[in-house]
Amino acid sequence: MIDFKNKTAVITGAAGGIGFALASECARRGMNLVLTDIEDKALNKAEERLDAPGIKTLSGDIRDAAFVKDLADLCYREFGSADLLFNNAGVAAGSSIWDTTAEDWDWVMGVNFQGVLNGTREFIPRMLAQDSPCHVVNTASVAGLVSYHPSAAYQVSKHAVAALSEQLYHSLTLKQRKIGVTLVCPGWVNTKILEAERNRPVGVQKSEKNREEEIVRASFQRAVDKAMSPETLADMIFQAIEKNQFYLLPDPTWKDLVSQRMNEILEEKNPASSAALNGFLSDKRALAELAAAQLREKSSGFLKRFSRNRSRR
After folding, report:
1. Architecture of domain 8-252 in CATH?
2. Could you give the C-alpha distances from 216 to 88, 98, 308, in angstroms and in order?
3. What's the CA angle centered on 258, arms 253 and 261, to 5 degrees?
4. pLDDT in tens, 102-121
5. Beta bridge partners of 179
6. pLDDT tens across 59-74, in order?
7. Alpha-carbon distance 216 to 279, whole Å?
8. What is the pTM of this model?
9. Which residues lie closer than 8 Å to 211 by C-beta, 6 or more apart?
């Protein structure tokens, strides 16, 4: 699908970051826009900044299948088709499997995976009925291609998006449909993903942070601050759409870590945990701080055990 003019793009998480950059690129190419985001005020501001032939917005929660149906109904009622679908919205929270609250697991999996699933299930049948060239872009992460990420829920959700996208690609290709699929797996991008907790639903218990998690977050923030811009990524995504390219890894520096996981699987080796961790904590400052925090934790545990043993004598 090369000619984008007067076609319609649907974008989730469109109020900022990658979503807004995609909306801007779509508008530049003369496309109509159907935009959604959980942040109502930010979505309204985004609409004001965009110059497109037609724009419709609907604020809501993509975890809710009924809401996504309303979004699709709006799109087809106003513009008659959905030619590009960007399942882009995402959040990050939590740490290890057991330290992440059940509510945070539901929230992260709900937005990052269920939102993509809802969008796919609602729009694909309508795109098939259009019988015209369309394209679906699912935003995953390099975390969905490697064996470790400090946020368990985030990693699991992105692996799920990768698997869903591969399944979608094969299902459409084997039936020779006119719908292309691109799986975007970015590394660091200069967005507000680390501030996702501002959109935490009311009543969702927040996972408590320890010193190690604070070090990881600070390291992540330093990486995000100097990362590629959302606009650069949006341009790369459109290049992938034009080439009908499925896998898109915008930052080639992560490919060694992806290759390492593939080799470990094929050679039936245990995952190299230290290499996986270092892939995400590449700055020496964070690694030194993390080592010191772990040493203090071990020392504290030893002292507690020593104290208990003395009290028993």
Report:
1. 3-Layer(aba) Sandwich (3.40)
2. 24, 17, 32
3. 145
4. 999 999 999 999 999 999 99
5. 134
6. 999 999 999 999 999 9
7. 12
8. 0.89
9. 293, 296
